[in-house]
Amino acid sequence: MRRRLLKMNVWAVLGAVLATFVPGVGFGQTGPGGVGNSSNNVLWLSADYGVYSDAGVTPATNGANVRQWNDRSGNNKHAVETDASHRPNYQVNQMNGLPVLRFSGSADDRILSSGVTTNNRATVWVVARYFSLPRDNPGLLQGSSTPFTTDAAEKSIGMWISSTSSRVWGRGVESGGLQRNLPQNTSTSANATYAICNIYGTTTINQYVNGVTAGSVSYNGTLRDWSEVGIGRQGSESWDGDIAEVIVFNTALNEAQRIIIDNYLAAKYNFAITNDLYTRDGAGFDHEVAGIGQVSGANHTDAQSGIVRINNPNGLGNSEFYLWGHDNGPLQPTTSNTPAEVVERVQRVWSGNRNGTFTFNLHVDFDGIGDPALENMRLIVDTDGDGFFNDESTATGGLIPATAVNGTVYSFQGITLPNNRNFTFGTVVTPLPVDLLHFDAGEDNGAVVLTWSTASEKDNSHFTIERSPDGENFQFVGMVDGMGTISTRTDYSFTDKSPYKGRSYYRLSQTDYNGTQKYISTVKVDVGEADPKLRMYPNPSNGVFEITFKDAGEPTLISVTVLDLRGHQVYAGELPANKNAASRTFEVDLQGIVSPGIYLVSVAHGSARVVERMVVE
Q1: CATH match for 431-530 among 1.20.1080.10, 3.40.30.10, 2.60.120.650, 2.60.40.10
Q2: Cα(367)–Cα(344) distance, rounded to whole angstroms?
Q3: pTM higher than 0.85
């Protein structure tokens, strides 16, 4: 039977799986390109995230002026412009289909992020284009100790373009007040997109334009406070054009990290760079590009992009990288284009470029997607590069089992993904070691007799029987030896001579010779009480079952609701009134509505309510 696994409580059908703790799996490198986190990525503004026409309540629409631009670094240093006459304008579908903030030089537009955590080191990117250069040095960004000062002596860091030469320029001011100006080496053109990066290191300030070295200047490795970051203006000279993204670190990133972020920006905004290591953006995988790599001994070995994290490379050498991005597909399950062994896969598809022969660990966080059993989780790789997953299998190397799970984070350790290949994630159904035919319970003179049969067994050490008064809290009752490996039917029985009175539940589990335990079935039984008022048959079912309710022929309506274990209603109906019968029977059909799992069936009659569990396979 094909079972939907991505959105179900898997233990109810396949059994509980003990989570394996994986040191270092907690996601942390969440900055742009998978570089940095909120401790050093102190400001991150992108026009496709958190742009508001008011104080963070109303998202900006096309043509609206922007009052607040939210910081996505995790530090909440949102950029704000309280003066309505100086606010930039929000424009959609401008750079590779993405929005921008449009600054008017004539209106002196600007926006300010205050209280940024600063340091003597810094790395700054601005992605922008200009329409004109109406002032001497229209400013993209400045850092200072006071907001938007027009006093050059108060500026600490900054970048701008000279209207005289159309060349990129910039500055760093040492803590003692000495200005260090970058040389004007790189020419620019109107309406072209540029990613300009300044890195304030230990002895030099280096500038890069679209990945190309644009100049450097020596300094003493100190910076005056620059906690106020102004965007779209420096001093009294405003930008006349678009700004799509601003990235600020309070540390000097290394060469590998700079190349990774340059590739992230180039893929996102579709402009050419040197060291273009990621070519999958041309195939539509230009979302959330991230990477790991090494240059001249400087490396970046841990990166997270969305729900995917890659870290701990083994054998990583100089000039070796792995960069990946995705197609922005929904994080929902699909049964289309799946290998024969796979039940479902995530609709989103990732793709990557690799140069080098190193291995790494890959982790994916399924929080909000599902919690499949560890043994069912697979990394699906299009190994032949034909754009399809349905021709992949374990034999082709296209289905890689997860090696560990920590909560909802699944890990694939020591893998090598081929260059220029797509991948996604899916689930298979791992056959149980025991093919259970039935598991039944019945009362016999105050005892409970449990019977079950198997069609076949593999490495089956023993069965364990547990009981519970509420279906939640189970305790050990007994154990029955298994048959090891056998391919013919075997019948078993066990008698509980001291059962609970009233309704109780019995759970059957199976243990392999290697100690692996799986819960395979649960039944209920009533001891010493009259027949229950509510019966459901069959249980477990395939989603179609009958409800019989004893109501002494009362003609009032009886409501039926079915809830999943999260309390969400998945079905509602009514039992028809019948004046002449002592009970009523009603068929419920959940096929095509729910996935396999445990559901609560509630039947309400006047002020009375009866709730029973239904297992859907």
Answers
A1: 2.60.40.10
A2: 16
A3: no
